[in-house]
Amino acid sequence: MHMKRFLFGIIACLTVGSINAQDRIYMKDGAVEEVKLTEIGPRNIKYKKWDNLDGPDYVVPKNEVRRIKYQNGDEEIIDRRGESRPVNDRTRRASNVNYGKNIIAFAPIEMNNTSATGLGISYERVLDKNYIISFILPATYSFRSESKYDYMTNATGNRDARMLWISPGLKFYPAGSNHKVTYAVGPNVVFATGTEPQYGPVVVNGVTVNQFVDRDVFMMGFMITNYLNIQPTPKIYLGLQMALGIPYVTEENVNGYSDNYKYYNKNANIPLINFGFRVGYRF
Description:
Elements: H1 2-19, E1 23-27, E2 32-40, E3 44-49, E4 58-61, E5 65-69, E6 75-78, E7 84-86, H2 89-95, E8 102-112, E9 118-126, E10 133-150, E11 155-166, E12 169-172, E13 181-204, E14 207-230, E15 236-253, H3 258-261, E16 272-282
Antiparallel strand pairs: 1-2, 1-5, 2-3, 3-4, 5-6, 6-7, 8-9, 8-16, 9-10, 10-11, 10-12, 11-13, 12-13, 13-14, 14-15, 15-16
């Protein structure tokens, strides 16, 4: 009696093992196929569907496949050229990491062409299933304080500069953004508004004099930004960016003297520059 139970248990285990012994194909679009592989060629993979082993053969191009998991537990990664390589434990852990498509980040260090000090925030959203293209919306508040001597008043005083920058853009990740270290590049449209001090000529009661004035500044331009992303964990985001561009529109008005002062537009010929460090949360 005990021997019959023992033999029945062995047969049951073997049956369950054979039921679960299917191969799996993980597609790049996220689909998972449970199959019986019949042929893996240089460009195509041929298989039968696991729930219809007597049915027709199916063929899928290897460049549409992300990885294969065999019935014995071994795995292979399929690269962009359709070549496969075995997966070790480290690669298997990396391939199972799930990176979110949203990043919210804070910039404690932000520099641009009007100030070496600033703070910023940004939001990034992955737009495609392969994590190649993202939309990013950064906002920066730059500020500086200058001590100036005014020859008109024979006194020294502090002058403050304040600028708000918003620069929506796109990020292109050649290898995708779902890795620990990634590089991206992309264009940004730049809008900036604020106040800057300057010592220069203004018209007072019909007379041109030199004195300190506060300029109301508006700028619009374009930049190309390079990004380096580091993901210590799937949730923690660290980033560096460096950008260079040109102003396309610059307007500067001085407290009611815009008609007399608009020809002294110094920002029109200064390149747009940006450098920053960001830390954020990915979800």
